[in-house]
Amino acid sequence: QVLVVGCGNSELSEQMYDMGMCEDIVNIDISDAVIRQMQERSGSKRPKMSYLLMDMLQMDFPDAHFQVVLDKGTLDAILTDEKEATLAKVDRMFAEISRVLQVGGRYFCVSLAQAYVLKKAVEYFSQEGWVVRVHQVAGSGDKQQFVLPVFVYVMTKFRKIPGAAPQILEIFPEEQDKPTRVESAEQLVAAVKDRQHYALLCSQLSKTPCGEQVSLDLCDKESGRPRYTLHVVDSPLVKPSRDNHFAIFIIPQGRETEWLFGTEEGRRQLAASAGFGRLVTVALHREQHYESMAGIQAELSGKVMELAPPGLPARQQVPFLSVGGDIGVRTVRHRDTSPLSGEYVVEDVKGDGTCYFRRLIFLRNRNVVQSEARLLAPVPLSGQKKRRKDKKKPSPTEPPAAIDKSYLCCEHHKAMVAGLCLLGGPDPLPGALLAVLVVGLGGGSLPLFVHDYFSEARVAVVEIDPSMLEVATRWFGFSQGDRMQVHISDGLDYVAKLAAEAPAQYDAIMFDVDSKDLTVGMSCPPPAFVEKAFLQKVKTILKPEGVFVLNLVCRDARLKDSVLATLREVFPLLYARRIEGEVNEILFCQPSPKGRQDPTELGARARVLEGALRQPGRPWDSSYVLADMLQAVKIL
């Protein structure tokens, strides 16, 4: 027996009857005109179905009379706001439905699932001990009929157990073959809201080109964690033809942080060069396993078509593009959590060509490479015999383990090292007696490079997080010695103490320290490191002819102007080096105007440094640092 509450003049009951799904259907409504209309319409054609004038808030049926209560939009029509009187009416509606429904019976509610409507229904019935499941029955694939997805709440009645019985809450998306259990009503509401936003997005994208790039995460069915990150990029300058409307670009694992794939401008250039009106880039997540490119295509093909542009011809083949035809290589070497830096991973990834790189990633900002080092290819020992044919060969996807300390991966590190040519003095820099302070260790690439290629340099490193010293030592080839010492301390405290005890002792001070506060528009350095009082202390411990090198990453234009103004108040000479394709800007600050150097002299010093670094025994191509040195000449 089925009860339809608030039946109106819907054809649903008639269709269920005519299809033979069920015949014993009782329809009720408070409108006398509607009931008479429906009685006349069904008449003798459906003798077992009845229409009754009745208020569902006070029904005449006995207890436990029905196996099913069906509600098509009635709850949405009643629960139009969260006023006390409205909520009280809904409580009476739910109580009556519960009364007339048998144990084991089900209340089906068809709804657009506004957040407060869904939350009210879920909380009421779950507290009564019922099993609550929300089905998505019509969504973004039904663009011609629905802009918003349609949901059905399925509430299964159980006897209420005294005490705190566990809630059973599930969501059953249209594309899955089984429901997903959630922990709370809030999680269920959030899951539904995600699908509503996605449906609106698909509807918008199907009608007009997107002016701004749109991004979304597709999550793993089992864990709920992001599996793919998609960016939708439209190229209005591409002239559409039958074959260039739409394409999907799979970014190889580990390369999602590269400028071409990881920035808005890079993706715009990628879409334009690919020659498609709409390009969807797909980034793969490190927590997930991917079998092959074909497997990814099969998994994504249905979902990405929901993001297709307007005007895509019917049954159009949509190409999947990539770099090199494979999904890349990513091997997570180490994963841990630091009290200061949060969760982080050390991973090896395959770059362009045959090079492998080791990266440190803070997962609170997973698209930013914190530190990076190139890995050396294994070199066979002299006189080593060839492998026997029956010996197992190393896997071509297995990255080498040794760190190439002679190579600076990060563009801003190259610029920071190049800034050392601003130092005055008669000695060639690689042999000069330099005292260098580096604040911020990370993987240790910057202090290691200065230590190894400036043979008389004494390097002090300040790092607030002891976990980073362990990471740098174990995974990035970092080590301490007579000329390299690490001090575990807050950089602010360390500099303040030096300013009070030992002024004017460093030739170069380098700040490469990230901010833990992601709410500020400046991710490097923390704001306290560029306050005037602290910069005065930095100037105090710097020699008069020395150079202070700062890695500035600031997206807030006003904040950046303020930082530069403060730096100019403290340091009379300020040179800026922008890193192409990145937000980073390297600032070279000198405490005395006497330090201003003639460009010809600076260029000569740059070439002396470049030549010295090419000496025998230094297996390093320094051309990239030379380029930065010459850029410094142009700045001057």
Q: Can you give the mean pLDDT? A: 85
Largest sheet: 9 strands, mixed
CATH architecture of the largest domain, please?
3-Layer(aba) Sandwich
Total E-strand runs: 27
Query: What is the CATH first-level class name of the largest domain?
Result: Alpha Beta
Quote the distance from N terminus to C terminus: 88 Å
Sheet-strand content, in percent, reads 25-35%
Distinct helical segment count: 17
In the sheet with the most strands, the strands line up as 3-2-1-4-5-7-6-8-9
The low-confidence runs, each spanning 5 or more residues with pLDDT under 50, are 379-396, 613-622
| Portion in helices | 25-40%
Net shape:
elongated
Which structural category do the helix and sheet elements fall into?
alpha/beta
Pfam families: Methyltransf_11 (PF08241), Spermine_synth (PF01564)
Organism: Ciconia maguari
InterPro entries: Lys/N-term_MeTrsfase_sf, Methyltransf_11, SAM-dependent_MTases_sf
Family: Belongs to the methyltransferase superfamily.
